[in-house]
Amino acid sequence: MATFKIGKVLVSSLFKKPATLMYPVVPREWQERTRGHVEIDVASCITCGICQRKCPTNAIAVDRNARTWEIQRMQCVQCSSCVDNCPKKCLTMKPEYTTPSTEKVIDTFHIPEAPKPAAPAGGENAAKEGEGGGLKCDTESCVFCGLCAKNCPCSAITVDRAEKQWVVDKDACVQCGLCVEKCPKKCLVIE
Fold first, then answer.
1. Average pLDDT, integer, range 131-141
2. Domain 33-113, CATH class in plain words
3. Which of 2, 6, 20, 94 is most buried (most C-beta within 10 Å)?
């Protein structure tokens, strides 16, 4: 009796598609919403560290001084939180999964220095005026609400509502644009 059941299964299997994929002979077709691994565009990264703060598993480490961005592939859970919160949109989710390994893989990327704008011609006074670039606030239209300071990932902005003062630490500011985006009066601009 059992041999008839096995024979029936064997004969029916001859006329059906295989139950398994013919990988690697036939490459896998990834679905649109597959979350395989995080990729970085190092040319547009500003090492602001927002991805590191938003990562729930602490898989990302950003070192602004050494200008490195690294991810521990075995610790990443492909939640896309870093991709969704990146202000420069330099992180993307690729559908292909990383190659399995018996060792923990840490991918380190070196972020190149952003080219500095050339000093304007015209002598010493023009050079001093050119140094004033970066984040600017129109204090005439500013209401000193402090939303820019609350949303700054680097704590580079200080707002004193009582004294009506707005100060930016140009060394700490990475010009990510979050403060400009969150300003209700649109009085902030990055030059």
1. 79
2. alpha beta
3. 94
**pLDDT digits 0-9 by tens, 167-176:** 998 888 888 8
Residue-level length of the chain: 191
The structure tokens listed for 122 are 């015209």
User: What pLDDT, on a 0 to 100 scale, did the predictor assign at position 116?
Assistant: 57
Task: Examine domains 33-113 and 133-190 and report if their fold is the same.
Answer: yes
The residue ranges of every structural domain in the chain are: 33-113, 133-190
Helix (H, G, I), strand (E, B) or coil at 120: coil
Task: Give strand ranges (E) for 51-152.
Answer: 60-63, 68-72, 91-94, 106-110, 135-137
Q: Cα separation of 85 and 80, whole Å?
A: 9
Percent of the chain predicted with pLDDT > 90: 25
pLDDT of 132 reads 55
CATH 1.10.357.10 assigned to 133-190: no
